[in-house]
Automatic annotation (TrEMBL), chain A:
UniProt protein name: Ribosome production factor 2 homolog
InterPro entries: Brix, Rpf2
Organism of derivation: Neophocaena asiaeorientalis asiaeorientalis (Yangtze finless porpoise)
Annotated signal sequence range: none
Chain segments carrying region Disordered: 229-267
Taxonomic path: Eukaryota, Metazoa, Chordata, Craniata, Vertebrata
Family to which the UniProt record says this protein belongs: Belongs to the RPF2 family.
Domain called Brix: residue spans: 1-195
Location(s), subcellular: Nucleus, Nucleolus
Pfam families membership: Brix (PF04427)
Bias (Basic residues): 238-250
GO MF, one example: rRNA binding
Keywords: Nucleus
From TrEMBL, chain B:
Basic and acidic residues composition bias: residue spans: 235-245
Main subcellular location: nucleus
Similarity annotation: Belongs to the RRS1 family.
Nucleus as UniProt keyword: yes
Low complexity bias locations: 326-342
Protein's name in the database: Ribosome biogenesis regulatory protein
Gene: RRS1
Length: 267, 376
């Protein structure tokens, strides 16, 4: 689902996205931020919506542009600079199989502060999450991508998961640095206008979550439910018992005697 | 005394539990946000431990990652699991993060022929029971499918109807009828599909020579056959009584470059006159026709909405067919007006102002019939 053009460090992206990626190796001189037509052309050609473009020049060394498309037009584009890069090959240990669905973790409060960072987070999720599945094999969760936002930099690390025995059912996790690691610096951004973004987020009616009937929520977080009752027989209603009005045993005896005498009289 | 020992036991059990969980518990100030459908976790805690960039950064990053991953794994292990071929599989919920779509939302499909008809007539699907009582076997059987209630194919005796040929194979006839029904259904389905995707399939209407073809179909077949030569029918002679085909020939006709000088002069002067005149040239006929068409469309849309609302409320059907009266027309006439008004309409060139004829009532000539035609 992504294509990479002229990337100096294409190994890392391509290896991460196999087998869903298309790599264009030819050195195309395009400037994504000025002219988007060539990007759109490539996207149409390969029917991809996510793309990564790498370039290197004196002004912007080790540049990487990550972007996504909506309807073959550029939606969001974020340019990051790579400060430190350790590739898959540099770290010598066993890797996990290609195409495993990675777990994504975003750390740092920066990811929610600015709109840029929020879009970047959404873009990275979109890029790295892989195909949507309904079941996942618990033993097959091997790959973790960890993004930390700190001091204006984003640290991207990938780890391999080792499940160790703990006293209970859930295992204890140990991590082993496996994959590529990058230190990224945010440079330019080209974010979609609000209405285009809204249009792209539109969900067809079938996918919208169904509204539950007779359940409503308060602004304070209280959930209200509504129950429909049948008509009540008010004579059989259970009310408060006034203990003071209760008949004492002596009184009750007196009443019984009266009733008896009345009956004898009748007879 | 006993109460105390019970308490002690409980406390001990708690301590054991805590010890067990110690290996997998992680303390965080702010809870993480999980989206298990995407295997995603977001940690809002500011990474204070890493503030000072130093050589130990990698180890600290790894520790942070380990903590966060532990929490995510704890959540994942809480999910309901299945056993699929000796592997433990967790059922993931729907992803909650909203991400933009790749392609725009698909447009609503056009209604199939049956749906249009049902809409028009106000037919709603009848709710049918799943099981039907079968007299023959004396039990409840399904309405269709395996071991259905009234199964035609299982009959061992078919009476020959009075008007049929006694030598005819009734069983084969039944099988043939079924095949024809299936084929017809398939054809209709494909046609609906083609209409939905607006595919222009070549109509092979008259091309299959059955014994019974209408005159038009044969005519069409003849035309197609004539054109399917190497020179696209240019040197094909016509039969003695065959008429020339309609609609063939050039689609646009241009005036010759020089010929009728007087006519050319007149047309140029007319154009100049129109350009110089201050009054805008309004072709009232066209304008009124356009207006009427818009009004008709609005009415049709409104009627459709009403019928929808009516359906929802209780199956009452709004006016679907003819309409009476309609918006009063201003002046001008419909397309089928007198030929003097018709003819060529090139924008406002002809300068055919109908201001001289407002007196004529805006009667619709053959109104209903025309309306029907226009609706196509």
């Amino acid at each position: 689902m992504c294509f990479v053009l002229k990337a100096i460090n294409y190994v890392l992206q391509y290896a991460l996205k196999k087998p869903y990626g298309v790599l264009y190796k030819k050195k195309n001189i395009t400037r994504p931020f000025e002219d988007q037509t060539s990007l759109e052309f490539f996207s149409k050609k390969s029917d991809c919506s996510l793309f990564m473009f790498g370039s290197h020049n004196k002004k912007r060394p080790n540049n990487l542009v990550i972007g996504r498309m909506y309807d073959y037009h550029v939606l969001d584009m974020i340019e990051v600079g790579i400060e430190k890069f350790v590739s898959l090959k540099d770290i010598k240990n066993s890797k996990c199989p290609e195409g495993t669905k990675p777990m994504l973790i975003f750390a740092g409060d920066d990811f929610d502060v600015t709109e840029d960072y929020r879009r970047l987070k959404s873009l990275l999720i979109d890029f790295f999450r892989g195909p949507t599945v309904s079941n996942v094999r618990l033993a097959g969760l091997e790959y973790v991508l960890h993004f930390t936002a700190l001091n204006g930099k984003i640290y991207f690390r990938s780890y391999k998961l080792l499940l160790k025995k703990s006293g209970c059912r859930t295992p204890r996790i140990e991590l082993e640095e496996m994959g590529p690691s990058l230190d990224l610096v945010l440079r330019r951004t080209h974010l979609a206008s609000d209405d285009l973004y809204k249009l792209s987020m539109k969900m067809p009616k079938a996918l919208k979550p169904k509204k539950k009937k007779n359940v409503s929520h308060d602004t304070f977080g209280t959930t209200y439910g509504r129950i429909h009752m049948q008509k009540q027989d008010l004579s059989k209603l259970q009310t408060r018992k006034m203990k003071g009005l209760k008949k004492r045993p002596a009184e009750r005896k007196a009443e019984d005697q009266e009733k008896k005498s009345k009956r004898i009289k009748k007879d | 005394m006993e109460g105390q020992s019970v308490e002690e036991l409980l406390a001990k059990a708690e301590r054991d539990e805590a010890e067990k969980l110690q290996r997998i518990t992680v303390h965080k100030e702010l809870e993480l946000e999980f989206d298990l459908g995407n295997l995603l976790a977001s940690d809002r805690n500011p990474p204070t431990g890493l503030r000072h960039a130093g050589p130990t950064q990698e180890a600290e990053l790894r520790a942070l990652a380990r903590d966060n991953t532990q929490l995510l794994i704890n959540q994942l292990w809480q999910l309901p699991t299945d056993r699929v071929e000796e592997a433990l599989v967790a059922r993931l919920p729907e992803p909650t993060t909203r991400l933009p779509r790749e392609k725009p939302v698909p447009r609503p499909r056009p209604l199939t022929r049956w749906q249009q008809f049902a809409r028009l007539k106000g037919i709603r699907p009848k709710k049918k029971t799943n099981l039907v009582w079968d007299e023959g076997s004396g039990q409840w059987r399904r309405r269709w499918g395996y071991q259905r209630a009234r199964d035609d194919t299982k009959e061992w005796l078919i009476e020959v109807p009075g008007n049929a040929d006694p030598m005819e194979d009734q069983f084969a006839k039944r099988i043939q009828a079924k095949k024809e029904r299936v084929a017809k259904n398939e054809l209709n389905r494909l046609r609906n599909l083609a209409r939905a995707h607006k595919l222009r399939l070549p109509s092979a209407a008259g091309m299959h020579p059955t014994g019974h073809q209408s005159k038009e179909e044969l005519g069409r077949a003849v035309q197609v056959a004539r054109v399917s030569t190497a020179s696209v029918g240019r040197f094909q002679e016509r039969l003695p009584k065959e008429k020339a085909p309609r609609g063939s020939g050039k689609k646009r006709k241009f005036q010759p470059l020089f010929g009728d000088f007087a006519a050319e002069k007149n047309s140029q002067l007319e154009m100049l006159r129109i350009m110089n005149s201050k009054k805008p040239q309004l072709d009232v006929t066209r304008a009124t026709n356009k207006q009427m068409r818009e009004e008709d469309q609005e009415e049709a849309a409104k009627r459709r909405k009403m019928s929808q609302k009516g359906k929802r409320k209780g199956g009452r059907q709004g006016p679907g067919g003819k309409r009476k009266g309609g918006p009063p027309s201003q002046g001008g006439k419909r397309k089928g007006g007198p030929p003097s008004q018709g003819g060529k309409r090139k924008g406002g060139l002809g300068g055919k102002m109908n201001s001289g004829r407002p007196g004529l009532s805006g009667k619709r000539k053959g109104g209903q019939h025309q309306g029907g035609k226009r609706r196509k």
